[in-house]
Design goal:
Blueprint: E1 7-11, H1 15-26, E2 30-35, H2 38-43, E3 50-53, H3 59-64, E4 72-75, H4 81-93, E5 98-102, H5 106-114, E6 119-121, H6 123-136, E7 140-145, E8 150-156, E9 164-165, H7 166-169, H8 171-175, E10 178-184, E11 187-189, E12 197-198, E13 203-209, H9 210-220
The structure holds adenosine-5'-diphosphate (ADP).
Residues 11-17, 34-37, 40, 55-57, 76-80, 83 line the site of adenosine-5'-diphosphate.
Length: 221
């Protein structure tokens, strides 16, 4: 079954917001791109479903864009913290369900948290953690921290596990973590069967306790 397409709006088309917008649109989602700078808006006309010039702190402008019908609104206004906060406040007052906001610093984060931002993102820090993980282990392709204890990691299949089935690896019994999916090139197997075979350079998407994941990565593959 085809994945249901979601409706997104991205406010602020700087480096971060611009990348989010382009990627969502590339994935085939509906994306409304908003910025108060006409040059930015022109630049994103071909990287979004619709690109408009608007000041996001102005409630009426947001209303006329029908922003409350969007499932997700990403606020990626950079240095202008005041505009970021005001925009977030307006969006939450309009009862937009998922408002994701880029934070510049801890004070900004605190305010966003208080006014109801649903998710607060620190792109530089998050990327820093991922790069560090990748440098430390060449096997770790990507890393998502779910909580202080649990993570999802993408691990690059090694020669050691080439041609093994999930039964051979027995990851759950031996390491207490679970292989959620196997990526091979463009293909992704999201419900791997016990007798599915893993090859070198496949990417294993594994969920578990951080200590268990580390053990699997260091000893199991
Ligand atoms: P980054 O650090 O991600 O590159 P920037 O600060 O460069 O972020 O980009 C933020 C974008 O947000 C700019 O393109 C800017 O024009 C836009 N922006 C700032 N204030 C508003 C506002 N009130 N309404 C809409 N867009 C805004």
């Amino acid at each position: 079954m085809a994945e249901k397409k979601k409706q997104f709006a991205v406010i602020g088309l700087g480096r971060f917001g611009g990348s989010v917008c382009k990627e969502l649109y590339r994935m085939g989602h509906q994306v409304l791109a908003i910025d108060n700078n006409d040059t930015k808006v022109n630049e994103f006309a071909s990287h979004s479903t619709h690109a408009v010039i608007a000041n996001a702190t102005d409630e009426k402008s947001l209303q006329s864009l029908g922003i409350r019908n969007f499932e997700y609104v990403i606020v990626a206004i950079g240095d202008d913290i005041q505009s970021s906060i005001l925009t977030t406040l307006v969006l939450k007052e309009m009862e937009v369900e998922n408002v994701w906001v880029k934070a510049q610093n801890v004070y900004h984060h605190k305010v966003l948290d208080k006014i109801g931002a649903d998710r607060i993102i620190h792109p530089e820090q998050d990327m820093g953690i991922r790069i560090a993980q990748h440098i430390v282990s060449e096997k770790i392709v990507d890393y998502i921290e779910l909580s202080d204890e649990y993570s999802i990691v993408e691990l690059l299949g090694t020669r050691k596990i080439h041609n093994s089935t999930l039964i051979d690896l027995d990851v759950r019994a031996k390491f207490g973590c679970t292989i959620l999916a196997i990526k091979r090139g463009e293909d992704i197997n999201v419900s791997p069967m016990p007798d599915d075979t893993i090859y070198e350079k496949d990417i294993l998407i594994v969920i578990g306790h951080k200590a268990d994941l580390k053990r699997f990565e260091e000893e199991g593959m």
